[in-house]
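dumping this here before i forget
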Amino acid sequence: MAWLHVANPIHARLTCGSANKGRGGITPGLWKAKNRGNLIARLARFLLRRDGAIVRTHYAIAIEQGTAREVVSRQLRGFEQRGWLTLRRGRIELLHRAVLQALHDESVTKSLIRETG
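structure:
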């Protein structure tokens, strides 16, 4: 199994290290993502925290959000089809920050209701 850690650094990040003890081998970033709202809210929050054009690949965003690149790409394409942002290779430009803010706020409100209700 040692060869797997060398051949697959992502697997090594998920299963090794003292930072992962008590979390079943999940990295701190993935632990946070799993325990914090849905992807739409997390993605909206990620986009809103940046000013101007966001220069980042879908893969890098997926790693930060604790999900797969395909999932991030699908969600971002949906946002683009609705006219909320534009996608270019390695670049995202927000067109309607207010809509993303509303998505984030609505999701946070629903999350709080679930936790207290």
